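Q: My hope is that you can spare some time for a protein that puzzles me. Underneath my words sits a plain record pairing an amino acid chain with its backbone structure tokens. Those tokens are not coordinates but codes from a learned vocabulary of shapes. Thank you; the sequence and its tokens follow:
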Amino acid sequence: MNSANESAAFWEKHYASMDAQWGTKPNAVLTALLAGLAPAPGTALDLGCGHGGDALWLAAQGWDVTPVDVSQTALDRVAAGAAATGLTDRVHPQQHDLSETFPDGAWDLVTATYFHTPVTIARDSVLRRAAQAVAPGGRLIVIEHASTAPWSWQAGQDIRYPTPDDVIASLQLDDTWAVERGDAPQRTATGPEGQTATVTDNVIAVRRTS
């Protein structure tokens, strides 16, 4: 699959078939990372937001968040979650196929958390565009799979995952950026049916200094 229509179709089917409560909790890696970096709340862009666990958590911490996804079903559920928690004024969903269009503006925090897809897209180009959307003094955070969980659609495939250094190099950052985090820790993950496994993540945090 490699077209915008196929991307939308795949993710619509994916979210329509999922429990609406799956993915409504924030990613523990992201929350721990932000606790350590301790940025003051500002504006945030959440790329590939899914059901909005990260976006809604950020809004609850005082961030003004733009959650982005190609799936309208996912975005509708994010909006419903915002309404149910009194966060509508801080959550502004936008529908984009990020390989085709990108939100306008600059943000204090841009996150791409498990921004993976079986649909063929120019992922490195999207992440470089994400870096361009970071305001001076702001951060780009990329958290991605560096191993394959047993429940993944890629289970059983021979996949070479990039290292954190590979990801940082692919962003093509200049000397106005500082690398705050670039490693590949392990953690215990829980799958959609409650199963657990040890997995590895790439965790990248870069700050635009000027």
